[in-house]
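Many introductory courses stop at the sequence. We go one step further.
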Amino acid sequence: MGDQVTAGRTTAMPALLLLALSAAGCTSGNETDHAATTTAPRSSTAPPEEHSTELVPPALDPEAGEVVAGRRGATHGNASFSYDAGSPEKALIVAVSCRGSGSVKVSVPVLGTQFPLECGGAEPAVTYNQLAMNAAHKAGTVAVTAPSTVTWSVTVGRGNAVEQEPSATG
């Protein structure tokens, strides 16, 4: 079994519109280690942000067994933060929300993985990336590179790995 990356559950809040990821997945130093797929969007369990100007970290789904390992609230520009180790049977989830003019690059150095997210102007863009990789259970850091015109927040968690969708090329 190889490593697996699932990029998906991309939504715009509060309208919950599906936005396309510019790369439709993650990258790492060894492209043969994993494949990227996009899964169906899901509605967030986060409270509506209609009256809030604060960009809150995306919520995970506790009913699906997802648990938080680390969080970073509304931030401008570049920053990094740590997350806790977890069970080797669980995949790492990196949920990112951003708003403003520009895009963010999210890196998970312990996994050698990074992915971009185009931010949604006035409406936050949200993406949930699931990383079912050999080192996903280890503690690590998430580093976000972003212009000062973008506000972002991140939730890192653990959850059951989603089955990878079969490739159209076989």
